[in-house]
Amino acid sequence: MARAARALAVALLAALAGAAAAPRDSSPAPADLELAEVAEVPAWRELWYGSLEALHREPTINNTQEDVLAQLGAVAFLHCPVRNLGERGVSWVRRRDWHIISSGMLMYTNDERFQVLHSEGSDDWVLQIKYVQKRDNGTYECQVSTGGGTLSRLVHLHIAVPEAFILGADEHHVDAGSTISLVCIIEKSPVPPQYVFWYHNARMINYDAARGVTVQTEPGPKTQSTLAIRAAGPQHSGNYTCCAANTEPAHIFVYVSEGMSRDGVVVVKAVRLLATNGRFYKVHTINRRQRWKPASTRLLAEVAEVPAWRELWYGSLEALHREPTINNTQEDVLAQLGAVAFLHCPVRNLGERGVSWVRRRDWHIISSGMLMYTNDERFQVLHSEGSDDWVLQIKYVQKRDNGTYECQVSTGGGTLSRLVHLHIAVPEAFILGADEHHVDAGSTISLVCIIEKSPVPPQYVFWYHNARMINYDAARGVTVQTEPGPKTQSTLAIRAAGPQHSGNYTCCAANTEPAHIFVYVSEG
Protein backbone atom coordinates (compact mmCIF):
# COMPACT_ATOMS: atom_id res chain seq x y z
CA MET A 1 0.00 0.00 0.00
CA ALA A 2 2.76 2.44 0.96
CA ARG A 3 4.61 1.70 -2.30
CA ALA A 4 1.51 2.29 -4.43
CA ALA A 5 0.71 5.52 -2.55
CA ARG A 6 4.23 6.74 -3.25
CA ALA A 7 3.76 5.87 -6.90
CA LEU A 8 0.54 7.88 -6.97
CA ALA A 9 2.34 10.93 -5.57
CA VAL A 10 5.05 10.60 -8.21
CA ALA A 11 2.42 10.31 -10.94
CA LEU A 12 0.66 13.48 -9.79
CA LEU A 13 3.92 15.39 -9.85
CA ALA A 14 4.70 13.99 -13.28
CA ALA A 15 1.32 15.20 -14.56
CA LEU A 16 1.99 18.70 -13.24
CA ALA A 17 5.34 18.71 -14.99
CA GLY A 18 3.78 17.62 -18.29
CA ALA A 19 4.99 14.04 -18.14
CA ALA A 20 1.46 12.73 -18.69
CA ALA A 21 1.34 14.51 -22.06
CA ALA A 22 4.03 12.31 -23.64
CA PRO A 23 3.16 10.82 -27.13
CA ARG A 24 1.51 7.35 -27.11
CA ASP A 25 4.21 5.85 -29.33
CA SER A 26 7.10 7.04 -27.15
CA SER A 27 9.21 4.41 -25.48
CA PRO A 28 8.40 3.63 -21.82
CA ALA A 29 10.13 5.89 -19.34
CA PRO A 30 10.62 5.43 -15.59
CA ALA A 31 7.64 7.75 -15.00
CA ASP A 32 5.46 5.45 -17.16
CA LEU A 33 6.36 2.52 -14.94
CA GLU A 34 5.32 4.56 -11.88
CA LEU A 35 1.99 5.40 -13.60
CA ALA A 36 1.41 1.71 -14.24
CA GLU A 37 1.83 1.06 -10.52
CA VAL A 38 -0.83 3.69 -9.77
CA ALA A 39 -3.41 1.64 -11.69
CA GLU A 40 -3.09 -1.02 -9.00
CA VAL A 41 -4.54 1.40 -6.41
CA PRO A 42 -8.39 1.00 -6.32
CA ALA A 43 -9.06 4.65 -5.42
CA TRP A 44 -6.53 6.14 -7.80
CA ARG A 45 -9.12 7.71 -10.15
CA GLU A 46 -10.84 9.52 -7.29
CA LEU A 47 -7.51 10.81 -5.93
CA TRP A 48 -6.37 11.84 -9.41
CA TYR A 49 -9.45 13.84 -10.34
CA GLY A 50 -9.70 15.31 -6.83
CA SER A 51 -6.14 16.63 -7.20
CA LEU A 52 -6.89 18.11 -10.64
CA GLU A 53 -10.00 19.80 -9.22
CA ALA A 54 -7.96 21.29 -6.37
CA LEU A 55 -5.56 22.79 -8.91
CA HIS A 56 -8.39 24.80 -10.46
CA ARG A 57 -9.78 26.19 -7.21
CA GLU A 58 -9.24 29.90 -6.71
CA PRO A 59 -7.15 30.83 -3.65
CA THR A 60 -8.76 32.59 -0.70
CA ILE A 61 -7.03 34.87 1.79
CA ASN A 62 -7.94 35.95 5.29
CA ASN A 63 -8.07 39.69 4.57
CA THR A 64 -8.84 40.76 8.13
CA GLN A 65 -6.36 43.49 9.01
CA GLU A 66 -4.06 42.59 11.90
CA ASP A 67 -2.13 44.66 14.43
CA VAL A 68 1.16 43.23 15.68
CA LEU A 69 2.98 44.74 18.68
CA ALA A 70 6.72 43.99 19.00
CA GLN A 71 9.24 45.36 21.44
CA LEU A 72 12.35 47.09 20.11
CA GLY A 73 15.01 44.44 19.49
CA ALA A 74 12.60 41.49 19.65
CA VAL A 75 11.31 39.28 16.80
CA ALA A 76 8.08 40.14 14.96
CA PHE A 77 5.95 37.59 13.11
CA LEU A 78 3.52 38.83 10.44
CA HIS A 79 1.04 36.17 9.32
CA CYS A 80 -0.63 35.67 5.94
CA PRO A 81 -3.06 32.69 5.81
CA VAL A 82 -3.88 31.65 2.22
CA ARG A 83 -5.95 28.60 1.20
CA ASN A 84 -5.87 26.79 -2.16
CA LEU A 85 -2.68 28.57 -3.15
CA GLY A 86 -1.73 25.92 -5.71
CA GLU A 87 1.23 26.94 -7.84
CA ARG A 88 0.83 30.64 -7.10
CA GLY A 89 3.17 32.60 -4.85
CA VAL A 90 2.71 34.89 -1.85
CA SER A 91 4.51 38.24 -1.91
CA TRP A 92 5.24 40.59 0.99
CA VAL A 93 5.39 44.36 0.38
CA ARG A 94 6.34 47.20 2.74
CA ARG A 95 3.71 49.88 2.18
CA ARG A 96 5.64 53.00 3.21
CA ASP A 97 7.96 52.74 0.19
CA TRP A 98 6.21 49.92 -1.75
CA HIS A 99 9.37 47.85 -1.49
CA ILE A 100 8.86 44.20 -2.47
CA ILE A 101 10.41 42.20 0.36
CA SER A 102 9.74 38.67 -0.90
CA SER A 103 8.02 36.55 -3.50
CA GLY A 104 7.44 33.00 -2.36
CA MET A 105 10.59 32.02 -0.47
CA LEU A 106 12.78 34.36 -2.56
CA MET A 107 13.95 37.50 -0.73
CA TYR A 108 14.29 40.88 -2.46
CA THR A 109 16.10 42.69 0.35
CA ASN A 110 19.69 42.54 1.59
CA ASP A 111 18.48 43.12 5.15
CA GLU A 112 19.22 39.76 6.75
CA ARG A 113 16.71 40.39 9.52
CA PHE A 114 13.87 39.58 7.13
CA GLN A 115 12.93 35.97 6.38
CA VAL A 116 9.85 34.13 5.11
CA LEU A 117 8.76 31.10 7.14
CA HIS A 118 6.52 28.47 5.56
CA SER A 119 6.05 24.84 6.54
CA GLU A 120 5.09 22.30 3.89
CA GLY A 121 1.34 21.68 4.02
CA SER A 122 0.65 24.87 5.99
CA ASP A 123 -1.59 27.72 4.72
CA ASP A 124 0.40 30.35 6.63
CA TRP A 125 3.16 32.44 5.02
CA VAL A 126 4.94 34.27 7.82
CA LEU A 127 7.21 37.29 7.41
CA GLN A 128 9.72 37.19 10.27
CA ILE A 129 11.63 40.34 11.23
CA LYS A 130 14.44 39.84 13.71
CA TYR A 131 15.78 42.54 16.06
CA VAL A 132 13.03 44.99 15.07
CA GLN A 133 13.98 48.66 14.94
CA LYS A 134 11.98 51.88 15.06
CA ARG A 135 12.06 52.23 11.28
CA ASP A 136 10.31 48.84 10.88
CA ASN A 137 7.15 50.42 12.26
CA GLY A 138 4.36 50.60 9.68
CA THR A 139 2.07 48.60 7.39
CA TYR A 140 3.03 45.48 5.48
CA GLU A 141 0.91 43.79 2.81
CA CYS A 142 0.89 40.19 1.63
CA GLN A 143 -0.43 39.62 -1.88
CA VAL A 144 -1.54 36.74 -4.10
CA SER A 145 -2.20 37.25 -7.81
CA THR A 146 -5.22 35.40 -9.26
CA GLY A 147 -7.14 35.37 -12.54
CA GLY A 148 -9.66 37.77 -10.99
CA GLY A 149 -7.13 40.24 -9.59
CA THR A 150 -4.92 40.53 -6.53
CA LEU A 151 -5.88 39.29 -3.08
CA SER A 152 -4.21 41.06 -0.20
CA ARG A 153 -4.05 41.34 3.58
CA LEU A 154 -2.67 44.26 5.64
CA VAL A 155 -0.62 43.79 8.79
CA HIS A 156 0.19 46.86 10.90
CA LEU A 157 3.44 46.50 12.86
CA HIS A 158 3.81 48.67 15.96
CA ILE A 159 7.25 48.95 17.59
CA ALA A 160 7.17 49.54 21.34
CA VAL A 161 10.22 51.50 22.50
CA PRO A 162 10.81 51.20 26.26
CA GLU A 163 11.92 54.44 27.91
CA ALA A 164 14.21 54.84 30.91
CA PHE A 165 14.64 57.91 33.10
CA ILE A 166 16.27 58.61 36.46
CA LEU A 167 14.16 60.54 38.94
CA GLY A 168 15.44 64.02 39.74
CA ALA A 169 17.54 66.58 37.89
CA ASP A 170 20.52 65.94 35.62
CA GLU A 171 22.85 66.48 38.58
CA HIS A 172 22.76 64.98 42.08
CA HIS A 173 24.78 66.38 45.01
CA VAL A 174 25.54 64.39 48.18
CA ASP A 175 27.90 64.84 51.10
CA ALA A 176 30.76 62.43 51.69
CA GLY A 177 29.79 59.65 54.07
CA SER A 178 26.11 59.75 53.16
CA THR A 179 24.21 57.36 50.86
CA ILE A 180 23.81 57.86 47.14
CA SER A 181 20.26 56.81 46.23
CA LEU A 182 19.12 56.81 42.59
CA VAL A 183 15.82 55.52 41.18
CA CYS A 184 15.46 54.49 37.54
CA ILE A 185 12.02 53.97 35.94
CA ILE A 186 11.52 51.93 32.76
CA GLU A 187 8.12 52.21 31.11
CA LYS A 188 6.35 51.49 27.82
CA SER A 189 7.82 47.98 27.80
CA PRO A 190 5.39 45.20 26.70
CA VAL A 191 7.73 42.70 28.35
CA PRO A 192 9.06 44.15 31.63
CA PRO A 193 12.84 43.73 31.87
CA GLN A 194 13.98 41.23 34.47
CA TYR A 195 17.35 42.92 34.86
CA VAL A 196 18.35 46.58 35.02
CA PHE A 197 22.07 47.36 34.91
CA TRP A 198 23.78 50.32 36.57
CA TYR A 199 27.12 51.76 35.43
CA HIS A 200 29.50 54.19 37.12
CA ASN A 201 31.24 55.88 34.20
CA ALA A 202 31.93 52.83 31.97
CA ARG A 203 31.94 50.18 34.73
CA MET A 204 28.98 47.95 35.65
CA ILE A 205 28.43 48.03 39.43
CA ASN A 206 25.36 45.81 40.03
CA TYR A 207 27.42 43.19 41.83
CA ASP A 208 29.71 45.49 43.86
CA ALA A 209 28.14 44.49 47.18
CA ALA A 210 31.58 44.46 48.83
CA ARG A 211 31.88 48.16 47.96
CA GLY A 212 28.58 49.09 49.57
CA VAL A 213 26.48 48.90 46.39
CA THR A 214 22.97 47.42 46.35
CA VAL A 215 20.51 47.25 43.45
CA GLN A 216 16.84 46.35 43.88
CA THR A 217 14.62 45.93 40.82
CA GLU A 218 10.84 45.51 40.79
CA PRO A 219 9.62 44.46 37.30
CA GLY A 220 6.16 45.63 36.27
CA PRO A 221 4.29 47.98 33.91
CA LYS A 222 6.68 50.61 35.24
CA THR A 223 9.80 48.73 36.25
CA GLN A 224 11.61 50.46 39.11
CA SER A 225 15.29 49.91 39.91
CA THR A 226 16.92 51.51 42.94
CA LEU A 227 20.68 51.97 43.27
CA ALA A 228 22.12 52.64 46.73
CA ILE A 229 25.78 53.26 47.60
CA ARG A 230 26.62 53.49 51.30
CA ALA A 231 29.35 55.75 52.72
CA ALA A 232 29.90 57.66 49.52
CA GLY A 233 33.32 59.19 48.91
CA PRO A 234 34.86 61.43 46.22
CA GLN A 235 35.69 58.31 44.19
CA HIS A 236 31.94 57.82 43.72
CA SER A 237 31.58 61.10 41.82
CA GLY A 238 30.93 60.74 38.11
CA ASN A 239 28.39 59.72 35.51
CA TYR A 240 25.80 57.07 36.43
CA THR A 241 23.82 55.17 33.82
CA CYS A 242 20.87 52.82 34.11
CA CYS A 243 19.88 50.62 31.18
CA ALA A 244 17.97 47.45 30.30
CA ALA A 245 17.77 45.26 27.23
CA ASN A 246 16.51 47.18 24.17
CA THR A 247 16.04 50.37 26.19
CA GLU A 248 17.74 53.71 25.65
CA PRO A 249 19.96 54.35 28.73
CA ALA A 250 19.35 57.18 31.19
CA HIS A 251 22.16 59.22 32.75
CA ILE A 252 22.79 61.41 35.80
CA PHE A 253 25.94 63.10 37.11
CA VAL A 254 26.67 62.68 40.83
CA TYR A 255 28.91 65.03 42.85
CA VAL A 256 30.22 63.83 46.20
CA SER A 257 31.64 66.71 48.28
CA GLU A 258 33.97 66.08 51.23
CA GLY A 259 32.47 68.57 53.64
CA MET A 260 33.03 71.32 51.07
CA SER A 261 31.99 74.86 51.61
CA ARG A 262 29.85 76.64 49.06
CA ASP A 263 33.09 77.70 47.31
CA GLY A 264 34.19 74.08 47.09
CA VAL A 265 30.96 73.06 45.34
CA VAL A 266 31.42 75.90 42.84
CA VAL A 267 34.98 74.70 42.13
CA VAL A 268 33.63 71.23 41.31
CA LYS A 269 31.25 72.87 38.84
CA ALA A 270 34.08 74.94 37.42
CA VAL A 271 36.08 71.80 36.68
CA ARG A 272 33.30 70.77 34.29
CA LEU A 273 33.66 74.06 32.39
CA LEU A 274 35.80 74.45 29.32
CA ALA A 275 37.53 77.66 28.21
CA THR A 276 36.50 78.38 24.63
CA ASN A 277 37.32 81.71 22.96
CA GLY A 278 37.61 83.35 26.32
CA ARG A 279 34.19 82.19 27.57
CA PHE A 280 33.05 79.39 29.83
CA TYR A 281 30.84 76.74 28.30
CA LYS A 282 28.97 74.06 30.21
CA VAL A 283 27.69 70.64 29.13
CA HIS A 284 23.94 70.20 29.47
CA THR A 285 21.79 67.16 28.77
CA ILE A 286 18.73 67.81 26.62
CA ASN A 287 16.59 64.89 25.48
CA ARG A 288 19.34 62.49 26.59
CA ARG A 289 21.91 64.11 24.26
CA GLN A 290 24.76 66.41 25.26
CA ARG A 291 24.42 70.01 24.15
CA TRP A 292 26.77 72.96 24.67
CA LYS A 293 25.60 76.37 25.80
CA PRO A 294 27.31 79.37 27.48
CA ALA A 295 27.51 79.14 31.25
CA SER A 296 25.19 81.54 32.99
CA THR A 297 26.44 84.92 34.15
CA ARG A 298 25.44 83.93 37.67
CA LEU A 299 27.63 80.84 37.57
CA LEU A 300 30.54 82.87 36.21
CA ALA A 301 30.06 85.30 39.05
CA GLU A 302 30.12 82.41 41.52
CA VAL A 303 33.32 81.06 40.00
CA ALA A 304 34.96 84.51 40.19
CA GLU A 305 34.43 84.47 43.98
CA VAL A 306 36.41 81.24 44.37
CA PRO A 307 40.10 81.94 45.16
CA ALA A 308 41.29 79.01 43.03
CA TRP A 309 39.31 79.93 39.92
CA ARG A 310 42.28 81.56 38.12
CA GLU A 311 44.34 78.38 38.49
CA LEU A 312 41.47 76.32 37.10
CA TRP A 313 40.94 78.79 34.24
CA TYR A 314 44.56 78.87 33.08
CA GLY A 315 44.91 75.14 33.64
CA SER A 316 41.99 74.62 31.26
CA LEU A 317 43.57 76.91 28.66
CA GLU A 318 46.86 74.98 28.88
CA ALA A 319 44.99 71.67 28.42
CA LEU A 320 43.35 73.05 25.28
CA HIS A 321 46.74 73.51 23.61
CA ARG A 322 47.99 69.97 24.22
CA GLU A 323 48.05 67.75 21.15
CA PRO A 324 45.77 64.68 21.35
CA THR A 325 47.21 61.16 21.37
CA ILE A 326 45.44 58.00 20.24
CA ASN A 327 46.03 54.33 20.97
CA ASN A 328 46.58 53.21 17.38
CA THR A 329 47.00 49.51 18.15
CA GLN A 330 44.68 47.60 15.81
CA GLU A 331 41.99 45.61 17.61
CA ASP A 332 39.94 42.54 16.68
CA VAL A 333 36.41 42.31 18.07
CA LEU A 334 34.37 39.10 17.85
CA ALA A 335 30.57 39.41 18.18
CA GLN A 336 27.90 36.77 17.75
CA LEU A 337 25.12 37.36 15.23
CA GLY A 338 22.34 39.32 16.96
CA ALA A 339 24.47 40.40 19.92
CA VAL A 340 25.90 43.86 20.73
CA ALA A 341 29.38 44.87 19.55
CA PHE A 342 31.50 47.56 21.24
CA LEU A 343 34.32 49.17 19.25
CA HIS A 344 36.68 51.25 21.43
CA CYS A 345 38.69 54.35 20.54
CA PRO A 346 40.85 55.71 23.44
CA VAL A 347 41.98 59.32 22.85
CA ARG A 348 43.82 61.52 25.34
CA ASN A 349 43.93 65.35 25.41
CA LEU A 350 41.07 65.58 22.93
CA GLY A 351 40.14 69.12 23.97
CA GLU A 352 37.59 70.66 21.63
CA ARG A 353 38.33 68.26 18.80
CA GLY A 354 35.93 65.54 17.74
CA VAL A 355 36.24 61.79 17.24
CA SER A 356 34.77 60.40 14.01
CA TRP A 357 33.91 56.78 13.18
CA VAL A 358 34.18 55.58 9.57
CA ARG A 359 33.20 52.25 7.98
CA ARG A 360 36.11 51.33 5.76
CA ARG A 361 34.34 49.08 3.20
CA ASP A 362 32.38 52.04 1.75
CA TRP A 363 34.11 54.95 3.59
CA HIS A 364 30.77 55.87 5.12
CA ILE A 365 31.07 58.42 7.95
CA ILE A 366 29.01 56.96 10.79
CA SER A 367 29.52 59.67 13.41
CA SER A 368 31.34 62.84 14.34
CA GLY A 369 31.47 63.45 18.06
CA MET A 370 28.02 62.48 19.37
CA LEU A 371 26.33 63.36 16.06
CA MET A 372 25.24 60.36 13.97
CA TYR A 373 25.40 60.32 10.16
CA THR A 374 23.43 57.11 9.62
CA ASN A 375 19.73 56.33 9.85
CA ASP A 376 20.53 52.84 11.12
CA GLU A 377 19.33 53.06 14.73
CA ARG A 378 21.54 50.14 15.73
CA PHE A 379 24.56 52.45 15.73
CA GLN A 380 25.27 54.72 18.69
CA VAL A 381 28.31 56.48 20.13
CA LEU A 382 28.87 56.02 23.87
CA HIS A 383 31.03 58.48 25.78
CA SER A 384 31.09 59.25 29.49
CA GLU A 385 32.12 62.72 30.60
CA GLY A 386 35.74 62.64 31.76
CA SER A 387 36.48 59.40 29.92
CA ASP A 388 39.07 59.08 27.13
CA ASP A 389 37.11 56.28 25.41
CA TRP A 390 34.76 56.91 22.47
CA VAL A 391 32.85 53.70 21.88
CA LEU A 392 30.91 52.80 18.74
CA GLN A 393 28.08 50.50 19.81
CA ILE A 394 26.34 48.32 17.21
CA LYS A 395 23.22 46.53 18.43
CA TYR A 396 21.83 43.30 16.95
CA VAL A 397 24.87 42.85 14.69
CA GLN A 398 24.25 41.31 11.27
CA LYS A 399 26.50 39.58 8.75
CA ARG A 400 26.93 42.75 6.72
CA ASP A 401 28.41 44.57 9.76
CA ASN A 402 31.51 42.40 9.40
CA GLY A 403 34.59 44.42 8.43
CA THR A 404 36.98 47.20 9.45
CA TYR A 405 35.99 50.42 11.23
CA GLU A 406 38.25 53.41 11.77
CA CYS A 407 38.11 56.14 14.40
CA GLN A 408 39.78 59.41 13.48
CA VAL A 409 40.88 62.65 15.16
CA SER A 410 42.01 65.64 13.11
CA THR A 411 44.99 67.60 14.50
CA GLY A 412 47.26 70.37 13.28
CA GLY A 413 49.81 67.78 12.25
CA GLY A 414 47.38 65.54 10.36
CA THR A 415 44.87 62.81 11.17
CA LEU A 416 45.27 60.29 13.98
CA SER A 417 43.45 57.01 13.49
CA ARG A 418 42.85 53.55 14.93
CA LEU A 419 41.50 50.47 13.12
CA VAL A 420 39.05 48.03 14.68
CA HIS A 421 38.25 44.79 12.84
CA LEU A 422 34.77 43.45 13.61
CA HIS A 423 34.20 39.72 13.06
CA ILE A 424 30.62 38.38 13.11
CA ALA A 425 30.30 34.79 14.30
CA VAL A 426 27.30 33.06 12.71
CA PRO A 427 26.22 29.92 14.60
CA GLU A 428 25.17 27.06 12.34
CA ALA A 429 22.54 24.39 13.02
CA PHE A 430 22.08 21.09 11.21
CA ILE A 431 20.09 17.93 11.84
CA LEU A 432 22.00 14.68 11.47
CA GLY A 433 20.91 12.51 8.54
CA ALA A 434 19.29 13.22 5.18
CA ASP A 435 16.60 15.81 4.40
CA GLU A 436 13.94 13.14 4.90
CA HIS A 437 13.47 10.64 7.71
CA HIS A 438 11.19 7.56 7.40
CA VAL A 439 9.89 5.65 10.42
CA ASP A 440 7.23 2.98 10.98
CA ALA A 441 4.11 3.72 12.99
CA GLY A 442 4.53 2.74 16.64
CA SER A 443 8.30 3.22 16.65
CA THR A 444 10.27 6.19 18.09
CA ILE A 445 11.20 9.28 16.13
CA SER A 446 14.73 10.31 17.14
CA LEU A 447 16.33 13.47 15.72
CA VAL A 448 19.66 15.05 16.70
CA CYS A 449 20.41 18.74 16.08
CA ILE A 450 23.97 20.13 16.29
CA ILE A 451 24.72 23.85 16.77
CA GLU A 452 28.32 24.90 16.23
CA LYS A 453 30.43 28.03 15.63
CA SER A 454 28.68 29.78 18.53
CA PRO A 455 30.98 31.86 20.80
CA VAL A 456 28.25 31.70 23.46
CA PRO A 457 26.64 28.22 23.47
CA PRO A 458 22.82 28.48 23.47
CA GLN A 459 21.18 27.37 26.70
CA TYR A 460 17.93 26.50 24.94
CA VAL A 461 17.20 24.77 21.63
CA PHE A 462 13.60 24.78 20.43
CA TRP A 463 11.95 22.11 18.31
CA TYR A 464 8.91 22.73 16.10
CA HIS A 465 6.54 20.33 14.35
CA ASN A 466 5.30 22.33 11.37
CA ALA A 467 4.65 25.72 13.03
CA ARG A 468 4.09 24.45 16.61
CA MET A 469 6.74 24.38 19.34
CA ILE A 470 6.80 20.92 20.97
CA ASN A 471 9.57 21.13 23.60
CA TYR A 472 7.08 20.82 26.46
CA ASP A 473 4.74 18.18 24.98
CA ALA A 474 5.81 15.53 27.51
CA ALA A 475 2.20 14.34 27.81
CA ARG A 476 2.31 13.48 24.08
CA GLY A 477 5.47 11.39 24.38
CA VAL A 478 7.91 14.15 23.46
CA THR A 479 11.27 14.58 25.22
CA VAL A 480 14.06 17.08 24.43
CA GLN A 481 17.56 16.84 25.89
CA THR A 482 20.10 19.59 25.23
CA GLU A 483 23.82 19.55 26.09
CA PRO A 484 25.39 23.04 25.65
CA GLY A 485 29.03 23.18 24.62
CA PRO A 486 31.39 24.07 21.73
CA LYS A 487 29.06 21.88 19.67
CA THR A 488 25.68 22.06 21.37
CA GLN A 489 23.66 18.88 20.84
CA SER A 490 19.89 18.67 21.21
CA THR A 491 18.02 15.37 20.87
CA LEU A 492 14.28 15.14 20.12
CA ALA A 493 12.49 11.86 20.82
CA ILE A 494 8.80 11.06 20.17
CA ARG A 495 7.52 7.70 21.42
CA ALA A 496 4.83 5.64 19.66
CA ALA A 497 4.86 7.70 16.47
CA GLY A 498 1.69 7.84 14.39
CA PRO A 499 0.66 9.40 11.06
CA GLN A 500 -0.15 12.65 12.90
CA HIS A 501 3.57 13.01 13.62
CA SER A 502 4.46 13.24 9.93
CA GLY A 503 5.52 16.68 8.77
CA ASN A 504 8.29 19.25 8.88
CA TYR A 505 10.52 19.40 11.98
CA THR A 506 12.67 22.41 12.79
CA CYS A 507 15.36 22.97 15.41
CA CYS A 508 16.50 26.50 16.20
CA ALA A 509 18.25 28.57 18.85
CA ALA A 510 18.70 32.28 19.45
CA ASN A 511 20.53 34.03 16.60
CA THR A 512 21.00 30.77 14.69
CA GLU A 513 19.64 29.86 11.30
CA PRO A 514 17.12 27.02 11.80
CA ALA A 515 17.61 23.50 10.45
CA HIS A 516 14.77 21.44 8.91
CA ILE A 517 13.94 17.81 8.21
CA PHE A 518 10.79 16.14 6.88
CA VAL A 519 9.56 13.06 8.71
CA TYR A 520 7.28 10.43 7.15
CA VAL A 521 5.47 7.99 9.44
CA SER A 522 4.06 5.03 7.49
CA GLU A 523 1.46 2.57 8.83
CA GLY A 524 2.88 -0.77 7.85
Describe this structure in words.
With 524 residues, the protein is mostly beta strands. The chain is built from 6 helices and 43 strands. Among the domains are: 54 residues; 101 residues, Immunoglobulins (Immunoglobulin-like), CATH 2.60.40; 101 residues, Immunoglobulins (Immunoglobulin-like, Sandwich), CATH 2.60.40.10; 95 residues, Immunoglobulins (Immunoglobulin-like, Sandwich). Helix 1 crosses helix 2.
SSE diagram, text form:
Layout (H helix, E strand, L loop, with lengths): L1 H15 L13 H9 L5 H12 L4 E2 L4 E6 L4 E3 L3 E2 L6 E5 L4 E5 L2 E2 L6 E4 L8 E4 L8 E9 L2 E12 L2 E4 L4 E5 L4 E8 L9 E4 L2 E2 L8 E6 L4 E7 L8 E6 L6 E8 L4 H10 L2 E3 L2 E8 L2 E6 L2 H8 L4 H12 L4 E2 L4 E6 L4 E3 L3 E2 L6 E5 L4 E5 L2 E2 L6 E4 L8 E4 L8 E9 L2 E12 L2 E4 L4 E5 L4 E8 L9 E4 L2 E2 L8 E6 L4 E7 L8 E6 L6 E8 L2
Parallel strand pairs: 2-11, 13-20, 25-34, 36-43
Antiparallel strand pairs: 1-4, 3-9, 5-6, 5-10, 6-7, 8-9, 10-11, 12-14, 14-18, 15-16, 15-19, 17-18, 19-20, 21-22, 22-23, 24-27, 26-32, 28-29, 28-33, 29-30, 31-32, 33-34, 35-37, 37-41, 38-39, 38-42, 40-41, 42-43
Helix pairs in contact: 1-2
